[in-house]
């Protein structure tokens, strides 16, 4: 059983083989990453982005949990990604959650220092490979203050906007769009998008309950993917005509990353 789970995890994390069709490559953290079935209901938005794409578009999800721009570089993950880029690829770059972490200091970056430098490096490397970089602000946390969703990524999101403007990089404002979606749903309904469960809600995975304002469940992942796709479709990139965003109004619960 352990060997089977290890194999499944390896397959989920492995890059897809070279394909002549259009590809979307994701560089990110746990909020976009792939997860095996035993981790359900936790899912990353990268797992269901395919549901908003033509069937011929391949998603290569290289997101890894716990990574910041700094550790993604230090662990060699960025070099591995660049090595397999193909001309014409679209690369979605979303970091910030772990760059803002001051408890696990090895992840932390200054939003106006190393974080800025790293984002500019990512853009330059992708362009050198004749691929298209797209900067993505980190998906909003489930945090509320005075009846309003609270922005948890201010300086990091601001840096992404600045770098995108400076370098003329397409931008997906997932943070801003998710904050808008949370406000529209309100605190109670939007809570159902995250790993927020009482002990009786999800006995199999969280017998003691869980209160996680960062990581998203299946519905959160589907909403996040639909928001990303909506922005991609409007960017007038070569990939944009292959994007057909799923509805952001309501997300089905299918028990895994299958498409409706």
UniProtKB/TrEMBL annotation:
InterPro entries with a match to the protein in the record: RhgT-like (IPR037459), SGNH_hydro (IPR013830), SGNH_hydro_sf (IPR036514)
Q: Which residues form the signal peptide?
A: 1-18
The entry lists its GO molecular-function terms as: hydrolase activity, acting on ester bonds
Q: One Pfam family, please name it.
A: Lipase_GDSL_2
Q: Does the keyword Hydrolase apply?
A: yes
UniProt entry keywords in alphabetical sequence = Hydrolase, Signal
The family database entries (CDD domains) matched by this protein are listed as:
Rhamnogalacturan_acetylesterase_like
Domain SGNH hydrolase-type esterase residues, every copy: 29-223
Q: Which family does it belong to?
A: Belongs to the 'GDSL' lipolytic enzyme family.
Name used for this protein in its record = G-D-S-L family lipolytic protein
């Amino acid at each position: 059983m352990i060997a089977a789970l290890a194999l499944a995890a390896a397959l989920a994390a492995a890059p897809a083989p070279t394909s002549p069709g259009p590809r979307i490559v994701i560089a990110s953290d746990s909020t976009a990453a792939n997860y095996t079935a035993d981790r359900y209901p936790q899912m990353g938005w990268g797992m269901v982005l395919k549901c908003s794409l033509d069937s011929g578009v391949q998603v290569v999800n290289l997101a890894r949990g716990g990574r910041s721009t700094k550790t993604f570089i230090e662990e060699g993950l960025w070099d591995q990604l660049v090595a397999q880029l193909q001309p014409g690829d679209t690369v979605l770059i979303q970091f910030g959650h772990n760059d803002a972490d001051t408890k696990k200091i090895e992840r932390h970056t200054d939003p106006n220092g190393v974080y800025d430098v790293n984002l500019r490096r990512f853009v330059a490397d992708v362009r050198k490979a004749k691929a298209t970089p797209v900067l993505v602000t980190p998906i909003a946390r489930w945090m509320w203050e005075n009846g309003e969703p609270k922005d948890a990524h201010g300086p990091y999101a601001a840096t992404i906007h600045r770098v995108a403007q400076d370098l003329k990089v397409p931008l997906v404002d997932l943070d801003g769009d998710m904050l808008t979606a949370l406000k529209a749903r309100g605190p109670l309904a939007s809570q159902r998008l995250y790993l927020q469960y009482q002990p009786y809600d999800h006995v199999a995975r969280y017998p003691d309950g869980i209160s996680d304002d960062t990581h998203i469940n299946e519905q959160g992942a589907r909403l996040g993917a639909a928001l990303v796709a909506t922005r991609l479709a409007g960017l007038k990139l070569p990939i944009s005509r292959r994007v057909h965003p799923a509805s952001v109004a309501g997300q089905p619960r299918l028990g895994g990353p299958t498409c409706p």
